[in-house]
C-alpha cells in the first residue's frame, strides 16, 4: 500500500534517518520496514527541501547527510587524533579489496594499513599509541558493522602487538563511502568536496536547502553578521518554515534575534537531545542560570555573544561550584575545577554553545546557551541542600 501522506510514521522515520548513519535491516528490521513503508513521501521531502539522496538497499537504508559546513562535533567521537582518521581510511581501503564474508586475521589488516599509510612517520605496532589508534579504528568498524568479529577481542591488541583476532568483511563494507562527482584524488580539501556538493544545488533553491540543512543537522543557526544571508532567509520566511518543519518533523521551530533552532516537545528514543542524563549537563544548565542572574557583569554583544577571559571564566566556575556544587554528582562536587572546566567546555563546544578565540583564548558564550536554564527547586534550596551535603 502506498502512503502519500506525511503522517506520524513518516515523521518518526524521518527522525530515525537524521539521527543514524544508516539503518541496517539485519539489526533494526522494524525501523527499516517503517522507512520502506514511507519511502516515497520521505524521498520527495528530503530531495526537495534538503537536496539529500535517500538510498534504499535490500540490506540497509541510508540518508546521505551533507552539512553546509563541517563542525568538530561531526567527527567520529571516539577518535582522538588525526592519525586515527588516517588509519581508518587505510582500513576502509583494505576492506574494499576483500570479498563479502572473507575472513582475515588482525595481523593481515595491520600489515596492509602500514603499507597504505602516508603519514610523516611510519606506523610502528610496537608503539603503544599507534596500537591504541588501531584499536579505536577497528572498534569503530565493528560499530558500523563493516567488520564482524569471528573470534577474539581487539582490546587485547593494545597490550600485546602479537595478539590475534579473526574478522570477516560484511556486505556493508562496499557502501560506507558515498559517491562523489569526481575521483577523490582530484580534491585538495574538504572545502572543495563541499563546494562540489553545492554546485548541484545552488542553481535551484540553494539558499532554502542550506537553511534546512543547518536547522536539521545543527543544534541551532546563529546569526554571524549584520547581513547574514541564511539568517535573513530564516527571518523573512519564518512562518513558512515553521508550518513546514512542524508538520513534517514534529519539532517546534523557534527564532530569536540572534538564533533559530528546532526544539523537541518531548523526549524521543531516536533523538540526541540537550540536556541528556550526563552529570555534566547539570553544570551546563547552572552556568546558563548564573550568567542570566549576573547579566550586568556579562553583557552580550550585538550578536548575543558573551566574551569572557580565561581567568574570569575560571573564577566564574569557582563561584558556580560554591553556589551549586553541593547538589552536583560526587565527581564534580569533590573534583578539581580544572577538570570540570575541561569537560564542561568540551560539552558546550559540541553543542555550539561555546567557542574559544584562537588568539586570545577568551571563551565566547554563544546565544544558544541563553535558551536553557537550570535551577534547584525552591524547597531544596531552602533546606540548604542538606540531602546532598550529607552524601
Automatic annotation (TrEMBL):
Taxonomy, superkingdom: Bacteria
A Pfam family per the record: DUF2398
InterPro entries assigned to the protein according to its UniProt record, in alphabetical order: CHP02678
Protein known as: TIGR02678 family protein
Organism: Virgibacillus chiguensis
Taxonomic lineage of the native organism: Bacteria, Bacillati, Bacillota, Bacilli, Bacillales
Amino acid at each position: 500500500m502506498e502512503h502519500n501522506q506525511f503522517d506520524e510514521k513518516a515523521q518518526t522515520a524521518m527522525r530515525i534517518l537524521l539521527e543514524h548513519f544508516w539503518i541496517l535491516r539485519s539489526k533494526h528490521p522494524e525501523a527499516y520496514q517503517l522507512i520502506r513503508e514511507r519511502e516515497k513521501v520521505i524521498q520527495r521531502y528530503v530531495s526537495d527541501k534538503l537536496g539529500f539522496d535517500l538510498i534504499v538497499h535490500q540490506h540497509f537504508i541510508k540518508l546521505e547527510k551533507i552539512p553546509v559546513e563541517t563542525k568538530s562535533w561531526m567527527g567520529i567521537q571516539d577518535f582522538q587524533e588525526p592519525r586515527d582518521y588516517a588509519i581508518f581510511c587505510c582500513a576502509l581501503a583494505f576492506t574494499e579489496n576483500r570479498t563479502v564474508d572473507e575472513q582475515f586475521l588482525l595481523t593481515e589488516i595491520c600489515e596492509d594499513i602500514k603499507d597504505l599509510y602516508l603519514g610523516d612517520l611510519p606506523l610502528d605496532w610496537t608503539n603503544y599509541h599507534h596500537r591504541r589508534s588501531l584499536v579505536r579504528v577497528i572498534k569503530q568498524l565493528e560499530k558500523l558493522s563493516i567488520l564482524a568479529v569471528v573470534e577474539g577481542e581487539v582490546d587485547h591488541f593494545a597490550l600485546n602487538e602479537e595478539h590475534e583476532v579473526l574478522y570477516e568483511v560484511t556486505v556493508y563494507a562496499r557502501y560506507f563511502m558515498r559517491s562523489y562527482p569526481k575521483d577523490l584524488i582530484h580534491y585538495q580539501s574538504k572545502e572543495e568536496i563541499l563546494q562540489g556538493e553545492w554546485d548541484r544545488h545552488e542553481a535551484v533553491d540553494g539558499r532554502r536547502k542550506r537553511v534546512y540543512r543547518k536547522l536539521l543537522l545543527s543544534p541551532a543557526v546563529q546569526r554571524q553578521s549584520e547581513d547574514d544571508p541564511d539568517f535573513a532567509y530564516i527571518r523573512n520566511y519564518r512562518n513558512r518554515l515553521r508550518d513546514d518543519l512542524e508538520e513534517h518533523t514534529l519539532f517546534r521551530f523557534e527564532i530569536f534575534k540572534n538564533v533559530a533552532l528546532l526544539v523537541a516537545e518531548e523526549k524521543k528514543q531516536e533523538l540526541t537531545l540537550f540536556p541528556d542524563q550526563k552529570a555534566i549537563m547539570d553544570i551546563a544548565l547552572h552556568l546558563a542560570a548564573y550568567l542570566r542572574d549576573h547579566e550586568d557583569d556579562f553583557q552580550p554583544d550585538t550578536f548575543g555573544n558573551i566574551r569572557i577571559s580565561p581567568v574570569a571564566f575560571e573564577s566564574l566556575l569557582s563561584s558556580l561550584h560554591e553556589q551549586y556544587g553541593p547538589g552536583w554528582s560526587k565527581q564534580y562536587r569533590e573534583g578539581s575545577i580544572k577538570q570540570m572546566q575541561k569537560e564542561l567546555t568540551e560539552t558546550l563546544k559540541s553543542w555550539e554553545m561555546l567557542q574559544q578565540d584562537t588568539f586570545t583564548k577568551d571563551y565566547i558564550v554563544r546565544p544558544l546557551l541563553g535558551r536553557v536554564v537550570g535551577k534547584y527547586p525552591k524547597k531544596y534550596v531552602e533546606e540548604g541542600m542538606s540531602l546532598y551535603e550529607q552524601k
